[in-house]
Fold these 3 entries.
Entry 1:
Amino acid sequence: MKTCLTWINIRYFLCLTFLFGLCSFLLIVVNTKTSYLPPHTKYGMVFDAGSVHTALYVYQWPADKDNDTGIVSQNFVCMQKGGISFYADNPAKAGESLRNCLDKAMPVIPTKQQKETPILLGATAGMRLLRMKNQTQADQILAEVSKTIKTYPLDFQGARILTGEEEGSLGWITINYLLRTFIEYTFEGGWAHPRSTEIVGAMDMGGASTEMTFQPSGPIKSKDSSIFFRLYGFNYRVYTHSYLCYGLFDALERYLGKIIAAFSAFYKIFRFLNLTDGQSLDVVNSTIWEFCSTKWTVLTSKFPTADQKWLHGYCEASIYILTLLLDGFKFNDQTWKNINFREQAGNADIGWSLGYMLNLTNKIPSEAPAEVTGHSYVIWVATVTMSFLTALLILCVVLVHCIQTPVSSYETLM
């Protein structure tokens, strides 16, 4: 039997060697297929340091871009009450105020990608006003927030005060991107530039400033109000202007001696009054007039969950917004219908930060999807199955032959 086993080992080994050699030959001569791995995901972070709150946004996009610009989506947001300009007398606290949101955002980004993730802090009208009043305090605050951000393993892009024109034009990018007037996903399964969609203008009101941005049909006379962008392979030149001190916070404090918090004020105030569904100007006028004419005791009973400090300022705030739109920006009965009040679109917040990240992706090199070459799944399954069945058949034949042949025969053969 020992001789039989020796005979089996030799011939079984030779058969298996032949079998696997045949399988290798088949895999070599059969045509291979080239495919691409899914693109890596890149991340970016932006601090929007407004006049009354600071928001941290985390964005992501596929590493392979479309005409040099990324398809960016909002991944995470963290809101911190109190703008960094509030800490003019204690700049160190401005830096510490960022840690809560940073600590929450870091786990969102894979550890191995954190050092290559860009992060910027952009301060808006609150810091612009502080710089006008006290340049030293503004510089100290920017130094402290920079010091804090640098303690995290991120690609720090700086902390700076945006111009009003930057804020307005980047907000314009955001709203048009979210409304898919720059690029849209087609039925064919790819991204394309829409041919019949109109580019929209954008207005934003914060606590200390109001911005208006749009793409004019003719030339822009003022170079200071003209900004150029190239997005998804197309060129855009827009007119933008920021009206400092015309934000809701400053306006009410200056003209009415009242202060209420303001953020995305166009939408926030009109949403409270249920005026964000395309109501006519007549309906808007009558609703505001009715609200402002209502006795305080009736208002508090009608809105029992509303913060009384906010409730007390909604009348003046709505009148200011309406006056600015009608007398300042010259909207009328005919053009009022063109205004849409929004705070979000496409599951992302409307503001300058997404526009900044979209523009930044133009400067970040694109990564081509990894290419892999191999056989199709069907060929591999067929080859492995054939190998297994053939090996099993050889083993069965050898065992049967070993059982039926006398030992002496094997000795003679050997």
Entry 2:
Amino acid sequence: MSPLSYAASTTVLADGRPWLFVGQVLLFPAIGVLLLVLGLRERSKARRAQPPPPPGYPAYPPYPPPGYPPQGYPPPGYPPQGYPPPGYPPPGYPPMPPPRPTAGRGLIIAGAIIIGLSLVSTAARVANSAGEHKAAENTAPSVKVGQCITGEAMASGVIGPHDVTMCIDPAGVFEVASTGGRDAPCPDGARSDTDFARWTNDASTVCFIPNLLTGQCYATVKHPVGDRKRTDTIKPVDCTDSSAEFKVVQRFDKADYDLCDAGLHQKIWTMPPRTYCTGPPS
């Protein structure tokens, strides 16, 4: 396959929003983990700051003691005046142990809540994306003739409104040449054996012509041929990049074999009329 010959048949996937993915899958759980770690650290510091119990700290006696209360208890006038007696508890009796520290509890709770909500949100998004993917298999993509999309969108099968870009943008390497039903041919009358990049799903067919800019260098992007029958796409690169394979020297919006200068390779489409003259990167 030459760098200007493409045949691709892909399926539509769910609409991708990288910023939302980063927030749900990476940022929010990271914040939750950070709060959880800070809370556990605060609690650990508080515990280390507590004085240790005295050696031989006795266990509290069973309550109530055996035989308590005696028969007829409590006596009239209980408790007596001045109870408890001065000096109670007796000297030397160990004090009650200090309460367990609560430092860091708020951070721990907040971190656990954020992590839990992030997991629930991610699971819901995965389920929603699966539903969108299933629905997209029977829906025509929202692209029109003359619009351009990126090579990444073409390769992944994600063709949504956010994938449409200006045709003067170097990243917009594919221009919509025709749209039709599932079995519609491309403008050259062919379906599987065509020089157009052909995208299909269960409802529609979109055929693309390469949209290459004069003076720009490009590289072929290899994709494995599998269930989606992906073949090569292209991407714009710097002419000094080692991956650069060819440079567009001339571009004409008409079809003519006598337009390119000597020594240049040419590629022609008649609908829409387009002629590219390419040479080595420099």
Entry 3:
Amino acid sequence: MSSTTRHSEGIADSRAAHNLVVGANGFVGRWLVLELLTRGVPVAAAVRDGGRGANGLRQWLRGHGVDDSVMVTVTSDITRPDLGFGPADEALLGEVRDVFNVAALYRFGLSAEDARSANADGALHVLQWTATRPSLRRRVPLSGYRVGRSNHPQFPLPPDESRALYARLGAYEASKAEGDAAVRVTAPRLGVPLTVVNPSTVIGHSATGEAAQYIGLAGLVEQLWKGRLPALVGSRRTYIPVVAIDYLARFMAAVPERDEGPIRLHAVLDSTTPCLPDLVALLADHLDVRVPRLRLPVGVVRRLPRALTAVDPETLSFLSEDRYDTGSADQLARAAGLQHPPVDETLRRWASRLVCDRFGAATTGA
């Protein structure tokens, strides 16, 4: 397969792509591309599965009323140091100045090797490629609100510490933590201006509820809808903040125009998100289903067999009472004229859309 996916709709020479979105046909990637194109910004979209991925992205954009004529697509493989780009791709990407990396392997139950290859090595590969851009302005990777909170990230970790991290957090979250540290430690060495965006749980579009991502908190909504949530894990203060996908896309698109300096970190979440029991009660009332009355401490669930609890052990580290400093993100949002949509209504619309999509079965034809 050629490393470049060619289309009759390309970017004119006078409008070369200044923005590259790696992971453009993923959940966050497609909404970010939509936002950039809506702003009239020529975009290079890096997709992972060649012509099929590029065609699917274009169809999705057109279905959302977006003109994709100033978008070009290239095939990328973040597990390779050169991202799989050939000479033709490099020619298309020669004037890129802002690189958004939203590519990741988001799945529980991954092997450490698979998770590290995509989420840690992949993040570093994108950074190293970014450092070769002659007109570079900023790199904007997507990380996560539960990682990257240390002011002194370490990379690489000693082997024993790395094994302990993966054993404690599970492969997905550990690989995200490793990738975050790798990027933050390496970017200054390479002279790459960096803004790390750390979003909370990303839910659907604030107006339509559209999401197309059905794990994590969406899995809890599915259990609630199907009557398979006999108990909540955590306490009254357990906090899983959310952010609407359209707000996140607008925020990320604004970053290169607003941020300066070698490194910035933004925790992006809606601080008005209810604590988990209240969030579940809100959704149960909306969906007209029973609210679970039983509550189990996280420590108890950790000791019980998964076959009994039906709880993925990798999700337990997200069930925390922690709160997060959103000061820098709020400041950027104010400067860019951004406001979170009403969180209660966004949650309701998202839940309705999840049910309508049969939690992914409708989109896969299952």
